[in-house]
Structures are given as structure tokens and as C-alpha cells.
């Protein structure tokens, strides 16, 4: 017998997992079994060892009447009607006397249950029920009455172990609970002198295949009276009603796997019994009883143990639920504190920054990160920003739950080895339905020692079958790469936090949408108003300017120098007001006029603008640096106005330079074209950059540089109507660069 290749080992494990433990085709011989067709009360199957009990061979019983064999058999069956129809557990209906050949009859206890479409009757030697009841009932009542709210789970299990040992008389009784991986940690033990001790040791999950765990949930008690028993087969082998092996899942006498018997012998166990601890329908743990010599346990004692196991399960379920509720109360309080901070700051990021201690403590993490496309805030002990963003990129691509948890990053995210060098565990949640935004918590690796009950490696025999380990002595393993596990309540709390954050974001989005709608309507009304006012003011302002000029010409000899100065001021102010009104009218028309797209040769347009504006700079020294510019798709009139404004500003704000340098260039990418106009003029302070493109925003006094403060607002509106963006860069007395990016377009046939 030696360790085999991984492939042969996996094959042996798979074969073991497929073993028909529910339909073994045989029973343990400490009793016998009959299968009955309930409507006719005729016997369909019998265990081969029935001849040892009543002197009649199994084949001779097939087809005979159950009532003829068991006096008042039908009356026993009627007792099952008192139970729920879906009751599958074996039920003691009473004791009966059966003849053994011509000898005096023997008293047997009868247990009945329905399964697989038939009635299954099991028979064991009867015991004194009165004495048993008088001894067992007070013990169960005492166990229940001693329960306390402050009793820990391990203390409760230890008390249960003591009661079951007293009831059954086994030499060693253990309780163990399963972890998330299915490993069983012994958390309570009581053993006689000479028995090996397993308290604090761990039994590997592979000791109990999944199908066995399912069976432990279905039938909560299992007994093996003699590990060296010879199985008694069923006659015939198949259930006549189904043509398949009989399902013995709920039979007390069901024969068990030969691999498990081998396992028991290796442990030095001659008899065993197990009681399941089931919480919320899942196998939480087991109480396991062992004896060196064969040991039979009466059905009364087994029933008492099963009842105690169910009471223990309910009590543990209550304690687990209470602990979880207390944990959730704390988590929800912290959620409220974080949400309040987010609401106060009107930002998820700023809100978390203000309560970072609560944020980290929320799930007991050592570090955390809040990540969006533009921000990455790190708290505590975390990987660097590049590793965090690599993690969120991976989270964005994966499918499945929006909450991801791992207590072993190297195992679960192997393609990010750098991450595993920094942390052991990760808990992450998406906080946006549209964007890549995540909250991530980190835990460090916790290297620890695992104490196993024997080296957990599996071995395959020469016949290719799984062979149980030979030794159960403590074997230590150093476990690396793991963090402490993320608790289920913490994962649930993170899910609730996500829903709450999404609720805040959604409500904020709705408020912004409402504001945007109202603002859009206001803008339309304002555009209509400004168009109407500016249109109506044009004529009066022109009249004022015109009549002021005429009055000056006609009364030139009659006006004093002071009067002429006043008249000139009136004329200049009227002309400025007229220009302002013209610009306002142009600005309002930007949002009302339809766009007409066509090809625009930017080089030709710049040359045209230079010719138009030559009177403004013909007596100045200007060095033009115009790169080769592309042909794009845009509205020619609108784009001409935008470029004219930018070129005009470059000429105006370089007037104090001995030699003005104006550089115009374009950069083309796959999707956009960016045009920039750079000058060496007065520049501006970047802290005012956000104001530049607003209406009536000026950074210089009127006596320094003329202007209405509408030109750049027009540029932004034109560019944004094309689907683009505007930017400005500058430094005081070192010049400025204004640029805009337009998406590349194609002319449609309609255009």
C-alpha cells in the first residue's frame, strides 16, 4: 500500500463518493428486517439472518402475511397514522412475541417506517421499557433544565457529551463541529482511562464524503454494535416495487461502508454510535461515541440520545442566531454612522474619510480602499495603488456575486501574485451599477499551526480503493497563505452597506436629474429672454451712438471741451453696449440654431481669420507658428466663430510683448482632434481656470484689455454642442494655451 499519483487518488476518492451507502443491500445482524407491502400486508423482502431469529428462512417468508408472523401486526402499523405522513424516521410501535421454530416465542421490539414505497419493519431484542424510561427521562429533563443563556457553545457540547456517555456507557464520547471547509474540530470530549484523546484535534473533511454528510442530516443517529459484524443480505436483493436496491437511509440496522469499518478498526474502535447536530438544515457537527469492545445500545437509549441531539441542535441554533443577531446589530449601527457621514459630506469618499476608524473596524480589517475611475483612497495596511487597481480591474471582469470574499488570495486570485505578498484575505463590494467603483477590505496573512488527528493524506490500496489512514496521533501542519475568515454576518453587512450606498447615490442622481431638467427649462427661458432683449436693444443703442456722433459733428463749434468729452463718452458707451448686446444675441443663438455639419479645412479657416483680423495687428510684430492642420467634420460657421474668439484673445493679450508669438497646432488620436492656440502674453493664474469659460467672467480690468466677457463662453457652448470639451492652461506673465477637443465624425448621406 503506497501513495499513488494524484489521478489515481482522485479516482479512488470519486469511487468512494459514489459508494451506495443508502442502498447497501444488507443490514447489521443485531436484528432482522422485513419489507412489507402495506395495502396487502404481504412480505416482499426479508434479511437472510431471519432464520437465526425465528427459524424460518427468508425465501419462505416472501409472499406470506405479516399478520400471520406478527400477532396484531396491523395494529402496530396503524400507530404510524399518528405521525406526519412525511415522517421517515424509524418509530418504536411496541414489543411482540415471535415463535422460533417449535420453541417458546421470543420478545422483540418492533420499529416501523415508510420509505421507498414500502413499509420497513426492523426487529431487535426487547428491553424493559419501564426501567429504561424511569432512568432516561430524568436525565433528558436534567439536561434541558441546566441550559443557561451565558453557557458557551463548547460548554454546551461538553455537557451533552457527558449525558450521552452516561446514557450509552461508551468508553469515549467526542463532539466536534465542522468548519467552512468541512474539517471537524473536536471541541468537547469525555473518555475513560486508556482511550486516546482527540480534544482540540482536527479531522479532515475527506473523512466524511458529502453523500455521508447528507445522510447524517436525513437520519440523525447511526449505530455500529460490532465493527467485525458479518452483513446479512436482503432477499431478494431488489425492492420488487421499484426493481432497484432498497433505500435503507432511515433504517437503524442499515449496513455501513466497508471503508468506514476499516477506518474504525484502524482507530482501535470495536463499536460506535454517532448523533447528528443539524442547524438550519445543515450538518453543523457530530457527537461521536466509541468503545473498544462490541456494544449494543437499546432503542430506548438511542431514542434518548437522538432527542438530546435534537434539543442540543435547537439550543445551538438559538445561540448561533443570537450571536449573529448581536453581530448584525453592531454592523448596522456602523452602517448608519457611515451613511450619515456620507450624507453630511454629500460624497461616499469624503464621508468614509471622516469615519475611517469605523470603516476599518466594520469587518475587522487591517486595511481598506475606496476606488473609482478617478480616485483611490487607501486606509491602514493595504497593497499599493497599482495592485489595488489591478484587483478592481479583475473584479470588474469576473462574473458572479457583487460581493467577493477570499481568505486566501494566492489560491483564489493566482494571476495577481503581488497582491498575495501584501495581504492574505480580501472582501470587496461594487458600489455602482454603472461605473467601476469598489470598496475593498484587506486582512493580513495569519500563519498558524493545524493539529490534525493523524496525517490527513489519503492512500490508495493496490486494488485502487481508498484506504483509511493507519495512525490518529496528532500531526502538526504549518498553514500559510490564509487570513482569518470573513464571517457570514460581515458579508451580509457588506451587502446591506452596498444597498444603502446605492440608495443614496440613486436618490442623489434623481435629485440631480430633476435639477438638470429644471435648469434646462430655465436655460431655454433665459435664452429666449436674452434673445428677445438683445434683439430689441440693438436699435436703440445704435440710435444713441449714431445721434451722439451726429450731434458732435453738428454742434462741434457750440460745445465746450467738457461737453465734447461727455458726448464722446456717451458714444463710446453706446457702442460698447451695442457690442455687448450683439455678443449676447450671438450667445443666445448658439443654443437655438441648428448645426449644419460639413468638411472644414482648419488650415484654410485659420488663414481666413488672420486676414479678417489683420487691421488689429498690422502695425505689430507677431510671429505666427501654424502647424499643418487636418480637415474635420463640424459646423463651419460655429467653428469659425470659436476659432476667431481664441485667435482674437491671443492677439489682444500679447499686445504688450515686443514680439508676440502665437502658435496654433492640432493633435489627432483615434477618436478625437485637439486644437490648441498658444501665446506668450499676460497669462492667468490657474486657480481661476474654472471661471474663464463662464459668461461675463473677466480676469483683467477693462482699462487694461477691452472685452465683454462672453467670447470664451461662446467657445465652450460651440465646442460642447459638437460633443467636445475645452481646456485652458496658463501662468501669469508667461502666456496661456486654450484648446478644445472634438470627436471625429463621419458625414451621413442625409448631411
From TrEMBL:
Gene3D superfamilies: 1.10.287.130, 3.30.450.270, 3.30.450.40, Histidine kinase-like ATPase, C-terminal domain, PAS domain. Residues 152-310 form the Phytochrome chromophore attachment site domain. Keywords: Chromophore, Kinase, Phosphoprotein, Photoreceptor protein, Receptor, Sensory transduction, Transferase. Its EC number is 2.7.13.3. Pfam families: GAF, HATPase_c, HisKA, PAS_2, PHY. CDD domains: HisKA (cd00082). PROSITE patterns: HIS_KIN (PS50109), PHYTOCHROME_2 (PS50046). GO terms for cellular component: plasma membrane. InterPro entries: BphY/WalK/GraS-like, GAF, GAF-like_dom_sf, HATPase_C_sf, HATPase_dom, His_kinase_dom, HisK_dim/P_dom, HisK_dim/P_sf. GO terms for molecular function: phosphorelay response regulator activity; phosphorelay sensor kinase activity; photoreceptor activity; protein kinase activator activity. It catalyses: ATP + protein L-histidine = ADP + protein N-phospho-L-histidine. Residues 532-746 form the Histidine kinase domain. GO terms for biological process: detection of visible light; osmosensory signaling via phosphorelay pathway; regulation of DNA-templated transcription. In the N-terminal section; belongs to the phytochrome family. This is histidine kinase. It comes from Pseudomonas endophytica.
Amino acid at each position: 500500500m503506497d501513495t499513488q499519483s494524484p489521478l489515481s487518488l482522485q479516482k479512488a476518492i470519486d469511487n468512494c463518493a459514489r459508494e451506495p451507502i443508502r442502498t447497501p443491500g444488507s443490514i447489521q445482524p443485531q436484528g432482522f428486517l422485513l419489507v412489507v407491502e402495506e395495502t396487502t400486508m404481504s412480505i416482499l423482502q426479508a434479511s437472510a439472518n431471519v432464520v437465526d431469529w425465528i427459524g424460518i428462512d427468508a425465501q419462505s417468508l416472501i409472499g406470506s402475511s405479516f399478520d400471520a408472523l406478527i400477532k396484531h401486526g396491523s395494529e402496530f402499523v396503524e400507530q404510524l397514522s399518528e405521525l406526519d405522513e412525511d415522517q421517515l424516521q424509524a418509530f418504536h410501535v411496541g414489543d411482540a412475541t415471535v415463535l422460533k421454530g417449535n420453541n417458546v416465542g421470543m420478545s422483540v421490539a418492533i420499529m416501523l417506517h415508510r420509505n421507498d414505497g414500502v413499509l420497513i419493519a426492523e426487529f431487535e431484542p426487547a428491553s424493559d421499557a419501564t426501567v429504561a424510561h424511569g432512568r432516561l427521562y430524568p436525565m433528558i429533563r436534567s439536561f434541558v433544565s441546566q441550559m443557561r443563556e451565558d453557557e458557551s457553545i463548547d460548554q454546551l457540547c461538553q455537557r451533552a457529551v457527558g449525558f450521552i456517555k452516561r446514557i450509552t456507557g461508551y468508553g469515549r464520547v467526542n463532539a466536534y463541529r465542522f468548519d467552512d471547509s468541512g474539517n471537524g474540530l473536536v471541541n468537547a470530549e469525555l473518555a475513560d482511562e486508556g482511550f486516546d484523546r482527540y480534544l482540540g484535534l482536527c479531522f479532515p473533511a475527506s473523512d466524511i464524503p458529502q453523500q455521508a454528510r447528507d445522510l447524517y442530516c436525513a437520519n440523525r443517529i447511526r449505530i455500529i454494535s460490532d465493527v467485525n459484524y458479518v452483513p446479512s443480505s436482503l432477499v431478494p436483493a431488489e425492492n420488487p416495487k421499484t426493481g432497484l436496491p432498497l433505500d435503507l437511509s432511515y433504517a437503524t440496522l442499515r449496513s455501513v461502508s466497508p471503508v468506514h469499518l476499516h477506518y474504525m478498526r484502524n482507530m482501535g474502535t470495536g463499536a460506535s454510535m454517532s448523533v447528528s447536530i443539524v442547524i438550519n438544515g445543515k450538518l453543523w457537527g457530530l457527537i461521536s461515541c466509541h468503545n473498544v469492545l462490541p456494544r449494543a445500545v437499546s432503542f430506548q437509549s438511542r431514542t434518548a440520545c437522538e432527542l438530546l441531539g435534537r434539543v442540543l441542535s435547537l439550543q445551538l441554533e438559538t445561540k448561533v442566531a443570537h450571536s449573529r443577531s448581536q453581530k448584525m446589530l453592531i454592523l448596522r449601527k456602523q452602517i448608519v454612522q457611515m451613511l450619515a457621514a456620507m450624507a453630511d459630506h454629500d460624497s461616499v469618499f469624503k464621508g468614509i474619510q471622516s469615519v475611517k476608524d469605523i470603516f476599518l473596524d466594520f469587518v475587522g480589517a487591517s486595511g481598506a480602499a475606496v476606488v473609482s475611475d478617478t480616485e483611490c483612497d487607501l486606509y491602514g495596511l493595504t497593497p499599493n495603488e497599482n495592485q489595488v487597481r489591478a484587483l478592481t480591474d479583475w473584479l470588474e471582469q469576473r462574473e458572479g456575486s457583487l460581493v467577493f470574499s477570499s481568505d486566501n488570495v494566492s489560491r483564489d486570485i493566482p494571476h495577481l501574485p503581488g497582491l498575495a505578498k501584501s495581504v492574505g484575505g480580501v472582501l470587496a463590494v461594487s458600489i455602482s451599477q454603472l461605473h467601476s467603483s469598489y470598496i475593498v477590505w484587506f486582512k493580513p496573512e495569519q500563519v498558524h499551526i493545524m493539529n490534525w488527528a493523524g496525517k490527513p493524506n489519503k492512500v490508495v490500496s493496490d486494488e485502487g480503493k481508498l484506504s483509511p489512514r493507519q495512525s490518529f496521533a496528532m500531526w502538526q501542519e504549518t498553514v500559510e497563505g490564509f487570513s482569518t475568515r470573513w464571517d457570514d454576518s460581515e458579508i451580509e453587512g457588506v451587502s446591506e452597506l452596498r444597498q444603502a450606498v446605492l440608495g443614496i447615490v440613486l436618490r442623489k442622481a434623481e435629485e440631480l436629474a430633476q435639477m438638470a431638467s429644471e435648469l434646462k427649462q430655465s436655460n431655454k427661458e433665459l435664452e429666449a429672454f436674452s434673445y428677445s432683449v438683445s434683439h430689441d436693444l440693438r436699435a436703440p443703442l445704435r440710435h444713441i451712438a449714431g445721434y451722439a456722433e451726429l450731434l458732435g459733428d453738428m454742434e462741434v463749434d457750440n460745445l465746450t471741451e467738457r461737453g465734447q468729452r461727455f458726448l464722446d463718452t456717451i458714444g463710446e458707451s453706446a457702442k460698447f453696449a451695442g457690442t455687448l448686446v450683439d455678443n449676447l444675441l450671438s450667445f443666445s443663438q448658439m443654443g437655438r440654431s441648428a448645426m449644419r455639419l460639413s468638411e472644414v479645412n482648419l488650415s484654410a479657416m485659420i488663414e481666413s481669420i488672420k486676414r479678417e483680423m489683420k487691421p488689429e495687428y498690422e502695425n505689430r510684430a507677431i510671429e505666427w507658428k501654424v502647424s499643418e492642420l487636418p480637415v474635420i467634420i463640424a459646423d463651419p460657421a460655429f467653428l469659425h466663430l470659436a476659432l476667431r474668439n481664441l485667435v482674437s484673445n491671443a492677439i489682444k493679450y500679447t499686445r504688450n510683448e515686443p514680439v508676440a508669438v502665437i502658435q496654433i497646432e492640432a493633435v489627432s488620436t483615434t477618436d478625437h482632434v485637439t486644437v490648441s492656440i498658444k501665446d506668450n502674453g499676460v497669462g492667468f493664474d490657474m486657480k481661476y481656470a474654472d471661471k474663464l469659460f463662464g459668461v461675463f467672467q473677466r480676469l483683467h480690468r477693462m482699462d487694461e484689455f477691452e472685452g465683454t466677457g462672453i467670447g470664451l463662453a461662446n467657445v465652450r457652448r460651440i465646442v460642447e454642442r459638437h460633443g467636445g470639451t475645452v481646456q485652458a492652461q496658463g501662468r501669469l506673465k508667461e502666456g496661456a494655451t486654450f484648446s478644445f477637443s472634438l470627436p471625429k465624425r463621419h458625414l451621413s448621406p442625409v448631411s
